[in-house]
Design brief:
The protein has helices at residues 3-20, 29-41, 48-72, 79-89, 94-110, 112-118, 132-161, 167-184, 196-220, 225-235, 245-255, 278-303; strands at residues 259-261, 265-267. With 304 residues, it is mainly α. A hairpin with a 3-residue loop joins strand 1 and strand 2 (265-267).
């Protein structure tokens, strides 16, 4: 895939996401990656070696399947371009993240019981006893964290490897690792060893994008850019994850909010307690950050 084709694929993929959102589950490539992981996890030993083998097989099958599908479509005009855009779009989710965050934000304000039942779509914490402020914080934390994992990182790897003609393959490889981490990357009995390789690979692949994210978040709220960067540098190490603290702390600094996961961490101690009205502000912040990333990716792909 040449660089001009890479630009066209990216434009189509971004347009698909913005205009149509998520594709049906029955044809969603990430759903199929999940099914592959579910099938294979029972067939590998629950050890670190088994986890490494699982990770390698899932990545290889995902990348080769995408590559061969595009190659096989080469006999028909425009089909490789459209198929590549379809596959690339599956690696990031802009509209869905913003919409789900908005829906939960409204539910927090109107019906906390409904909001608590919706929150697991975004967060992994116990939601049964969360107050409105804690629930609002959870949405804002997840929104900023998923901005990296679900949007910035796959775009970063697509742009990085496109000059080599491997942009789509790189984005698919990242999505395979990310999906594996979300399914087996837990420190629970039976998954601690099996999910180790996937979890560490996810940490490694998100390392640079997570740190780049603080600049797009800062630029998305320029009058508070200094506060966003300062908060990211000061508080990023408080989260258990080596990466999630960067965008979450930057978001806390940009909005002046005290974000807290009860019993785990607090970001920006001196910030004000989140209110339901802060959720739309956070969504607007991340929306602008996404726009900046899209603009930067288009510029790089166009000028390369």
């Amino acid at each position: 895939m040449m660089i001009n084709e890479a630009l066209a694929v990216f434009l189509l993929a971004a347009a698909y996401d913005i205009l149509l959102g998520e594709m049906p589950a029955r044809i969603h490539p990430v759903v199929w990656i999940g099914r592959l992981i579910s099938f294979l996890r029972l067939r590998f030993p629950a050890s670190k070696i088994g986890g490494m083998a699982l990770a390698l097989v899932v990545i290889a099958v995902t990348v080769l399947s995408g590559h061969l599908l595009v190659r096989a479509a080469g006999y028909l005009p425009l089909l490789p371009l459209l198929l590549s855009a379809f596959l690339l779009k599956s690696t990031f989710s802009m509209r869905c993240l913003l919409q789900v965050s908005s829906d939960i934000g409204r539910a927090i304000e109107e019906d906390m019981d409904r909001a608590r039942s919706m929150l697991p779509a975004l967060v992994g914490r116990d939601t049964a006893s969360l107050s409105q402020g804690q629930a609002s914080s959870a949405v804002i934390e997840s929104l900023s964290e998923n901005y990296v994992d679900g949007i910035l990182s796959p775009i970063f790897y697509y742009v990085l490897f496109s000059p080599l003609g491997l942009g789509l393959e790189a984005a698919l490889a990242f999505k395979a690792v990310s999906t594996m981490d979300s399914m087996v990357g837990y420190k629970t009995e039976g998954l601690r060893e099996l999910g180790f390789a996937g979890a560490r690979a996810d940490d490694l692949l998100n390392f640079i994008p997570a740190r780049l994210s603080i600049f797009s978040i800062a630029l998305a709220r320029p009058l508070q850019a200094g506060a966003a960067l300062a908060a990211a540098i000061r508080f990023h190490g408080r989260t258990p994850s080596p990466n999630s603290g960067w965008p979450m702390a930057a978001c806390a600094g940009a909005l002046g909010l005290r974000l807290e996961k009860p019993g785990s961490y607090v970001l920006l101690d001196e910030g004000k307690e989140p209110q339901t009205s802060d959720v739309p502000l956070a969504i607007g912040l991340i929306q602008r950050a996404i726009f900046l990333i899209l603009a930067a990716a288009l510029l790089i792909l166009y000028s390369a």
